[in-house]
């Protein structure tokens, strides 16, 4: 299983469309086995979902995301967790795996 977390300065950024890099974290047997930071493609509708699907991502953890982007991720069979406020990618994935990831209001206004 692979997770993606949009980052700015190695921390979750509240809007995935403005990220500096994506942390892509691979899990096996509930343990992190690989973590890499990848540069996103040019931001345009549909680019990020395709890009992350090509990287084998199954789940994206984000602070906020527009409805259209959520639909585009769903079309790529990528689960979206939104409303996450802060944390490092590793912390957020570990919380997800422990079923303790706190999500709330979508932090995106479009």
Give an overview in words:
With 110 residues, the protein is α/β, with parallel strands linked by helices. It has one domain: Nucleotidyltransferase, domain 5 (2-Layer Sandwich). Strands 1, 2, 3, 4, 5 and 6 form a six-stranded mixed β-sheet that branches. A hairpin with a 2-residue loop joins strand 1 and strand 2. The N and C termini lie far apart (29 Å). The mean pLDDT is 91.
Question: How would the blueprint of this fold be written?
Answer:
Blueprint: E1 2-8, E2 11-12, E3 21-28, E4 31-38, H1 47-54, E5 59-61, H2 67-75, E6 79-81, H3 89-97
Parallel strand pairs: 1-5, 5-6
Antiparallel strand pairs: 1-2, 1-3, 3-4
């Amino acid at each position: 299983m692979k997770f993606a977390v949009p980052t700015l300065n190695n921390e979750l950024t509240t809007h995935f469309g403005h990220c500096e890099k994506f942390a892509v974290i691979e899990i096996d047997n509930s343990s992190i086995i690989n973590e890499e930071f990848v540069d996103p493609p040019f931001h345009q509708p549909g680019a990020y979902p395709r890009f992350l699907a090509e990287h084998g991502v199954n789940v994206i953890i984000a602070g906020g995301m527009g409805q259209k982007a959520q639909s585009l991720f769903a079309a790529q069979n990528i689960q979206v967790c939104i409303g996450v406020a802060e944390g490092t990618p590793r912390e957020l994935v570990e919380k997800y795996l422990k079923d303790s990831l706190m999500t709330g209001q979508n932090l995106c206004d479009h």
